[in-house]
Amino acid sequence: MLSRKKLARILMESITPFVEEKVDFPSRGFGHCGYDVTLSTEFWVPKEGVIFDPLQPNQEHFEKVESPGPFVIQPNSWVLGITVEYIRMPRNLVGICLGKSTYARLGLLVNATPLEPSWDGRLVLELANLGRNALVVHPGKGIAQILFFHVKGAPPYEGRYQYQSRIQVP
């Protein structure tokens, strides 16, 4: 088990930029048991009428949108977003990303795969509006929290999305 002080030391070397305590609303930065990541201005919106096949990815099925201000996710739809933070996972930690309650209570589901030991990059987030109404997300604000767990003997991550600095579609 990691103490908060030890986790802070590890994350200061692992997350860029690192905010030493929670700030803003919705919050971003280091908290009591995890790190609140910040939503970037880059979004990839799926086009209508296409068929998605993870075995035959097609970047043309998405439209890239830069939104420095509020970004609207339509009802019953989803977009890809990405964190501002670049994360270098240590060999002895795994991270689990969960949505923030402020957005969850409005119908936003934030999904991300686990941050495996030795994974390196900006975290792509699947943002799904499960509600009947349009929902606004705010670049530059907290969007999700990563909880960190100690692991022993994990092999280094060698997956497809290693070192991503922008959104990569499947």
List keywords for this structure.
single chain; 170 residues; mainly beta; nine-stranded antiparallel beta sheet; two-stranded antiparallel ribbon; 2 helices; 11 strands; globular
Structure notes:
The chain has about 170 residues and is mainly beta. The strands form 2 sheets. Strands 1, 2, 3, 4, 6, 7, 8, 9 and 11 form a 9-stranded antiparallel beta sheet that branches. Strands 5-10 form a two-stranded antiparallel ribbon. Strand 8 and strand 9 form a beta hairpin. The longest helix is centred in the first third of the chain and has 11 residues. It starts with a helix and ends in a 20-residue tail after the last strand.
* Average pLDDT score: 94
Class by SSE composition: mainly beta
Shape: globular
Note the main sheet. 9 strands, antiparallel
Uncertain stretches: none
Order of helices and strands: HEEEEEEEHEEEE
List the helices and strands and how they pair.
Blueprint: H1 4-14, E1 15-16, E2 29-30, E3 34-46, E4 62-66, E5 71-73, E6 77-88, E7 93-99, H2 101-104, E8 108-111, E9 120-129, E10 135-137, E11 142-150
Antiparallel strand pairs: 1-6, 2-3, 3-4, 3-6, 3-11, 5-10, 6-9, 7-11, 8-9
What's a concise summary of this model?
The protein has 170 residues and is mainly β. The protein has helices at 4-14, 101-104, and strands spanning 15-16, 29-30, 34-46, 62-66, 71-73, 77-88, 93-99, 108-111, 120-129, 135-137, 142-150.
